[in-house]
Amino acid sequence: MPKPQDLLIPRPRKIELTGGTMPLTALHAEAPEPLATEMRAADTLFRQTRLFGEALPCRLSLDVELPAEGYELVIAADGVRITGGDRAGVFYGIQTLRQLLEGAQNARRGELVALRIVDAPEFHWRSCMLDSARHFQSAAQVREVIEVLARYKFNRFHWHLVDHFSWRIGFNRHAEMLEPFPGHARSTGYYTPEEIRDILAYAAERHIEVIPELEMPGHSSGVFAIHPELACPDGTPIDVTRCEYCIGNPASRRFLGEIIDETMELFPGIRHLHLGGDEASPRHWRQCPVCRNAIRDLGLNDERDLEHHFMTDLARRVLDHGVRPILWSSLRAYDPRIIMQCWGGRPLDPELNRGSLAGRRSMVRCQTAWIGAVAAAQMELALMRGADLINSRHDYTYLDYPMRRSEPHSLWMPDLTLERVYQFDPLPEETSAGRRRQVLGAEACLWTELITPDRVMEKLFPRLLAFCETVWTPGELRDWTDFRRRARHHRH
Ligand SMILES: [Zn+2]
Predict the structure, then answer these.
(1) Residues 133 and 195 placed together within one structural domain of the fold
(2) What is the pLDDT along the chain (492 residues), one digit of tens a residue?
(3) Please, which of 159, 218, 301, 344 could form a disulfide with 375 given CB 3.0 to 4.6 Å?
(4) Assigned domain for 343 exists
């Protein structure tokens, strides 16, 4: 029979065996009215675990003296007690109890060890991103991902919904974006307003905030198949290689402003909206008379300044809705109300397509190290400028990268082993104590260019287990050997 401390991921802050056991009999939740949702969650768990015999109580309560999202779990001979610093804390106590119950059942043990666990997260931004644009997962599959995130105490689900030819939000006022794009094969499918509301409610019950992402001004080539007027009129043909809106054209801002407004209606009550902002090339803007005029009229220096102006303007539109915008990092300064998500960049060296395979692989390794350094520099700059940031350094957190070389992958992708994910530190190196609060937390990302819906879980696990511990458990309590022992009890 494994010890209770060998069953738990993420590892709790403090676990104390108090002596004795509790018979593994039926349990029923008791809670005051404000904890009605958590009481239902506990009772659902108890039904799923199919326990029999005279029911013992599982008492849920709140104690504002406990930290936000923190909880205390006590198992004694006469039942279970879970006290949370807030509702989320109570919910996380239930998730810890779930792992203990499953561990005892798997070991065919008729009792739980009496104990007291005191726990709270190290970071309050514990997020996972799913790319539903490149490959479309059904609403049921999305709920399944949210369910496993909740079990590992994630509190945010970043949902990548717009990219090139894939628009996955059931817009009414811009329904043309949901039609097949002329001349381009794409995977079809979008989430209806009902499915979106349903997923928001499902996530909220599990204390997970949904953060939709609209990609702009790059990664947008599909738009121009339908709205060619939104691309730069610089004489080059509109094809898949041009990805950027004409950011000097007020019509682009108008179109994206309408898309933002409708997204707010379709995702009522959201607190953050991700506006993308990564990997836009200034190539067309440089040639475009409309963009050049805009740079002159606004008294700006160059295309990157114009991009900054364009994105800041759209971010303000989000702020006007009372919602905080998030952007993939850029080296230009943004309004500190915008959260920066730092990932690094992608190896784009054309040399990657030449030479021997061994040579190209060693180049990937060099470039990855270099890009890791870019991510570190981006974060240092963002912190200096007073921005709040989310750390998703690609070389630690991109779960589409192969865990081993035998998995399908693009050549530019470095390996990302389970141990490397476990070594991740959400706090960038040399963050001064005064800047510590600006690091909100971290995010693991599952891009799906190569990942079909049936492989989502296989790509998430086991590395998501390692990641969740990096954001929940303080660094001094993390231990790779100990983690590996515990991970054996968490198969998906
Ligand atoms: Zn232009």
Answers:
(1) yes
(2) 789 999 999 999 999 999 999 999 999 999 999 999 999 999 999 999 888 889 999 999 999 999 999 999 999 999 999 999 999 999 999 999 999 999 999 888 889 999 999 999 999 999 999 999 999 999 999 999 999 999 999 999 999 999 988 899 999 999 998 887 766 656 689 999 999 999 999 999 999 999 999 999 999 888 888 899 999 997 777 666 678 999 999 999 999 999 999 999 999 999 999 999 888 888 899 999 999 999 999 999 999 999 999 999 999 999 999 999 999 976 565 678 999 999 886 544 444 445 566 666 666 666 666 667 777 878 888 888 889 999 999 999 999 999 998 888 887 788 999 999 999 999 988 788 889 999 999 999 999 999 999 999 999 999 999 999 999 999 999 999 999 999 999 987
(3) 344
(4) yes
CA of 248 to the centre of ligand 1 (A): 5
Distance 236 CA to ligand 1 centre (A): 12
> How many Å lie between the centroid of ligand 1 and the Cα of residue 314?
17
Report CA-CA distances (Å) from 315 to 267, 272, 447. Answer: 17, 11, 24
Say which DSSP state 219 is in: S
In the reported structure, the alpha carbon of residue 253 is separated from the centroid of ligand 1 by a whole-number distance in angstroms of 12
Tell me how far the alpha carbon of residue 191 lies from the centroid of ligand 1, in angstroms. 31
How much distance in Å is there from the Cα of 252 to the middle of ligand 1? Answer: 10
Q: Which domain holds residue 471?
A: 125-487
Same domain? 249 vs 322 = yes
For ligand 1, the distance from its centroid to the CA atom of residue 291, given in whole angstroms, is 4
User: Tokens 């190209």 map to which residue?
Assistant: 360
User: What 3-state DSSP class applies to 173?
Assistant: coil
**Dist. CA 234 → ligand 1 center (Å):** 7
* Cα three-residue angle 266-269-270, rounded to 5 degrees: 80
Same domain, 134 and 250: yes
200 and 325 co-located in one domain: yes
